[in-house]
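Notebook, bench 3.
Goal today: get a predicted structure for Alpha/beta hydrolase from Microbacterium bovistercoris so we can plan the truncation constructs. The sequence was checked against the plasmid map this morning, with no discrepancies at the termini. Length recorded as 488 residues. Pasting the sequence as submitted so the record is complete.
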Amino acid sequence: MPLDNPAKTESAAETADAANHLHWKDIHPMLRIARRLFLTLLAALAVTLPLGSAPAPAAAQAHTGYLTESVGFVNDGEHLSGTVLVPASPGPHPAVVIIAGAGPRTRDEYLAEAKAFATAGIVTLIYDKRRDGYSMLERSYEQLADDAAAGLRALTGRDDVDPARAGVWGHSEGGWVAPLAAARHPEIRFVVMTGASGFTPAESQAWSNCEYLGHTGFAARFCTALGENVVRIAVATGLFPEAMHDPVPLLRRLEVPALVLLAEHDRSTPAGASARVFESELAADSRACTVPDVDHEFRDSADGFASGDLAEEPLRFTAQWMTDHARASSCPWEAPAAAADVVPTLAPQSAPLLPIGLLLAALSGFAAYPLTALIRRFRGVRGRPPLAVPLRVATASGALGAMGAVLVAGWVLATGAEGSLGPVVAERPLAWLLLQLAVVTALAAAAVAVAGWVRRPLHGWGAVRAAIVIACTGLLAIAAVPWGLLTL
């Protein structure tokens, strides 16, 4: 609704009276003026947008310092779509293909980095990650490397690109893919890795799980049980593709200059330990720099958990490095004190599949107790069975503890322990403490049931039902130790 005009002095009554005395002669000139304005606007539109004209091509979309073009390229039967950001200055220019991190990433997620590179004079390709062959349960780093190389070939075929200064920039998971792409495709003349890891994806994820578990409120003593064991199970059951990819052999074989930027407050990859790996394995014409006060996404951060704006200085330094024919240069930041990262060593054969199997078996057995109660009622048997109270308590609390442990393990697997489990009590989230209390309650109730059975032996269905509950509680006790359910 438009605001009232404060300069207007007529009262509402005077305005209404004037409106009542308007005549056609007063309105007719206004209609003629409106008609002329409409015809003038129509003529202007006819000049600027002639009938039948096509929309302006993407290449004509000018921005400050660069133009954008929509492109498509093919690898392994997959049609990939992307956007090329072309500097407005005359070429030939250096060129770079951005390789995204893990997940179904789209080109827009790295638009800020692409804009910074294009503004600095670098032809930059960002593209939507493939859908066919890439999911949480399926991926191939070789295929992703070939995707990036196909994109680079689309750039080096341009007249405004200098093929001698064309390379790839990989973030996070892209930091494993980028050196692989260089090893498979000699047209890649330099490699940039940001937020990369010098360890396998499985080891990096286990380390990251422990970081986020600590932020959630778990004490360090829960790291092995929840942070590492979940990854071991995922690897052993095939839920973690490319988990054991070892980057070190590729770093040793890398024959082109490489720039590695690590984040001081990275909580997804062990930056401190990775820095030592890169410094020892990369050739002399490469550099590994640790950027202070940024997180895994290279956003301003004091702790790696809360993020601010995208840091601009690392982008400027990277653009300058790529423009200068990837010449070795000293890092512009004073290296922060190296983090004392302890990265777990993982192998598929060390997976604790037995504990998770025991948890699931215990759940199935606990579910059988109320089921047999329904059968008992259906048969018309009335009255409280022997040892009903301790067996019911053991069943309910044991099922709660086992189910809760499985759900927490699933949460760690699906999210990397990012998020919150509520308030923290006694160096653990309250939700986990309640699960531990449930397990202890189940064990105590089962012990009471055993003692009662010794005093008064059970027979028939009562003995069978009691044996099921007691056995399931024993399975729960065995599984609870490696899962940290009995950790004080």
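The two ends are 64 Å apart (CA to CA). The longest helix spans residues 388-415.
Flagging this for group meeting.
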